[in-house]
Structures are given as structure tokens and as C-alpha cells.
Amino acid sequence: MKLQILGTGCAKCNQLAAATTAAADRLGLDYEFEKITDFLRFADFGVMITPALIVDGKLKVAGKIPSDVEIEKLLQS
Questions:
Q1: Does pTM surpass 0.70?
Q2: Structural domain of 18
């Protein structure tokens, strides 16, 4: 599984990155993690507002930080 966080490096982006990796670890997932800070690449995913979570190339959430339970559900779907 490939997990990507899109963001400029702000506190919310870092919070989403930490929450996502923690959720993936709790679930015992085998994953690759990448933080993308180049705003030109955001458009490749259709992201206009950050932070954003991409799972296996698909946009799962943008512009907010979901709860831990929500993140786990996003990673399992």
C-alpha cells in the first residue's frame, strides 16, 4: 500500500502524516509512505486544499484531518 500526504509542511500536514502512519501501524499494514510538498504535484491528484491523504493513488481526504477511526476506515477501504 502506498500512502502519500500532500501538504506544505504546516502543522496540520504534519499532524495528518503522523496520524496516518500511526493508524497504518495499528492496523499492521505493509505500506510505503511519502510526503509531497511540491505544490505543483498537488494538481496531479486534483488537490486544491491541503492537507490531503492519497491511498494507492486515490484521493481519500483533503482540507481536514479526520479522526483516528476515520483514518483507519479510509485505509481499510
A1: yes
A2: 2-76
